[in-house]
Write a structure and sequence with these properties.
Elements lengths: L1 H40 L9 H14 L2 H17 L1 H5 L7 H19 L10 H10 L2 H8 L2 H17 L2 H12 L13 H11 L13 H14 L5 H12 L7 H8 L13 H15 L5 H15 L6 H5 L28 H12 L2 H12 L5 H17 L6 H8 L2 H13 L1 E3 L5 E3 H7 L5 H23 L3 H5 L18 H22 L5 H13 L5 H20 L1
Antiparallel strand pairs: 1-2
Helix pairs in contact: 1-2, 2-3, 2-5, 3-5, 3-6, 5-6, 5-8, 5-9, 7-8, 9-10, 12-14, 13-15, 14-15, 14-17, 15-19, 18-20, 19-23, 20-23, 21-23, 22-25, 23-27, 25-27
Catalytic activity: S-ubiquitinyl-[E2 ubiquitin-conjugating enzyme]-L-cysteine + [acceptor protein]-L-lysine = [E2 ubiquitin-conjugating enzyme]-L-cysteine + N(6)-ubiquitinyl-[acceptor protein]-L-lysine
InterPro entries: E3A/B/C-like, IQ_motif_EF-hand-BS
Keywords: Ligase, Transferase
């Protein structure tokens, strides 16, 4: 016991001595830094025009720097480095290049942290901002180093480090504190600081980061998204930054941004509180760049729409338009509360949600989505994603449904045929190993996995809605089939199926309806509850409360499908 106490006492004493020694060394180095600075300012023997002297001063500053004590020293150091930037970066072409690069990154990281106090009126933000601008610019390094690939590598490493140290958070605070809330993108030429901030926002997004660790580029996009797009928009973001990034002249890397959004490590696709703001940005900037997306980029765009649309708050208008005679117990859907905090200069969730739905109904958006499903090479994933998007719109936002899109799909016989083919060809693997059509599983009233139900319910819902709508406008001659003309060609018809196909289809729909009743109201058969529990356990749901919530959610989805 005595030995243990003695050992602990030694450790504590060592810690205290180390702390006191460090404080003493900080004081010595701080005094030495001030002495050199005074000599440089008075024109003495110590000159800041010498690269080695600058390196010495930076080394001392980085050793003792504490923001509450040394922020003015940092600003003075930035002033001299900006003035003598060419002398300082010469160190990158010699044996001390790693030391110089380390010092540049550390200094810029300290500037980022200092700028986060930009709401302090006593802080001079101009020099730290200029420091970030100068030492993240290729124009600072190229005249000295004369090697484009080396300079690009340096810039990438510097930007990556800065972003990790809160670069985008600093810019976000600067934009909201130093720009007026009334600023618009058209004012950028009259407000110099606005142009500088916009350029600094865009700069890290245009590099490949091939010289940095794997995933660096995704980290850049994730940091940008987290700080600027994942929270309620301020007036400056809504009226200035977003319109600026939507301008084709800014060359925003839209397709790369979409890819980064869906990566699991970004975390953006799994947080519903961020969805309205991200979705609005995707749609707004997409108005400029949709036409330039590759085929793979369009597929990613469709995935993003499907992901974020399902996370939008349920529109109040969509809920109010439910049938008056609907069973309140069946339609007990919880509406996400659309909150707004008046007076804080932020755009409300309700307004952004409505704007998102309006943008989905524009001619450009409609044509883009229709072209994707009408092309001969359209894959099953495209149809499934489109069905999921339409299903979400019709269930959660009934009064805001893009009518042009849905009417165009309803009156396209090829699309309806393809949709029914997908539904009838969907299969699942049973416990015996055999593949069984999902329609057959539904007809039996057998519960299915969440994955299977998520595959077929949106497709089935969309098909039922569109086909029932198209039937109303089909003439009897089209329904029963026009006679063959003399030329041997049948007249074009809006009827997607022949009478023979309709017989088979009607039989399938009848059986499916009977099965959906069992799935929507599992309490009608006592043994079904155990089947539901077993099905959810098979996909990893173990908690009773979680299982009950999943069962209730599934029941609501089947009820909605049955009513269509």
């Amino acid at each position: 016991e005595e030995r243990r106490r003695l050992k602990n006492a030694i450790i504590i004493q060592s810690f205290v001595r180390g702390y006191r020694d460090r404080k003493h060394q900080y004081s010595i180095q701080r005094s030495e830094f001030d002495r050199c600075a005074n000599l440089a300012q008075s024109g003495g023997t110590f000159s800041t025009a010498n690269g080695a002297n600058l390196t010495l001063l930076v080394r001392q500053l980085l050793f003792f720097y504490r923001q509450n004590e040394d922020s003015k020293r940092l600003v003075w150091m930035c002033q001299n480095l900006i003035k003598q930037s060419s002398q300082f970066v010469k160190q990158l072409d010699g044996p001390d290049r790693l030391t110089c690069l380390f010092q540049i990154k550390r200094l810029l990281g300290l500037c980022c942290r200092l700028l986060q106090n930009c709401n302090d009126d006593s802080l001079n933000v101009a020099l730290p901002m200029r420091m970030l601008e100068v030492f993240s610019s290729e124009n600072t390094y190229l005249p000295v180093l004369q090697d484009v690939s080396y300079v690009t590598s340096l810039i990438e490493q510097i930007l990556h480090y800065m972003v990790q140290k809160g670069y985008y958070k600093s810019l976000y605070l600067l934009i909201n504190n130093k720009l007026p809330s009334s600023i618009e993108y058209s004012d950028v030429s009259r407000v110099p600081i606005a142009k500088i901030l916009l350029e600094n926002v865009l700069k890290p997004l245009h590099f490949t980061y091939s010289s940095c660790p794997e995933g660096a580029r995704q980290q850049i996009f994730a940091a940008f998204t987290e700080e600027f797009l994942a929270a309620p928009f301020t007036d400056q973001i809504f009226h200035f930054i977003i319109p600026a990034l939507a301008d084709v002249q800014t060359i925003f890397p839209y397709e790369l941004f979409l890819n980064a959004l869906l990566l699991p490590e970004s975390g953006c696709s799994s947080r519903s509180d961020q969805a309205p703001w991200l979705f609005y940005f995707v749609l707004t900037v997409g108005e400029t760049y949709l036409g330039s997306l590759s085929e793979e980029g369009l597929l990613v765009y469709l995935r993003v729409l499907q992901t974020f649309l399902s996370q939008l708050p349920v529109s109040a208008a969509g809920t109010n338009c439910q049938d008056a005679n609907s069973d309140s117990e069946d339609e007990d859907e919880e509406i996400s509360k659309m909150t707004t905090t008046p007076g804080d200069g932020r755009i409300s969730v309700q307004y952004i949600t409505e704007e998102c739905l309006k943008k989905l109904d524009t001619k450009q958006q409609t044509n883009t989505l229709l072209n994707m499903v009408w092309r001969d090479s359209a894959s099953e994933e495209v149809f499934t994603l489109m069905a999921s998007i339409c299903h979400t719109l019709m269930v959660q936002h009934r009064m805001m449904v893009p009518k042009v899109l849905l009417y165009s799909l309803a009156f396209n016989a090829r699309f309806l045929r393809h949709l029914w083919y997908l539904i009838s060809s969907m299969t699942t693997r049973m416990i015996t190993g055999s593949m069984v059509p999902l329609l057959q599983v539904i007809s039996r009233g057998s519960p299915m996995s969440l994955e299977d139900s998520s595959r077929i319910i949106p497709l089935f819902y969309l098909f039922s809605s569109l086909f029932s709508h198209s039937l109303i406008s089909i003439h009897d001659n089209e329904f029963f089939g026009d006679p063959i003309e003399a030329v041997g060609q049948r007249q074009s018809s809006m009827m997607p199926f022949t009478l023979e196909e309709l017989v088979i289809l009607s039989r399938c729909l009848r059986d499916a309806c009977l099965g959906i009743i069992k799935l929507a109201y599992p309490e009608t058969k006592p043994e079904v509850r155990e089947e539901y529990i077993a099905a959810f356990r098979s996909v990893g749901v173990t908690k009773n409360t979680e299982m009950q919530q999943c069962i209730q959610t599934e029941q609501k989805r089947w009820i909605q499908l049955f009513k269509v």
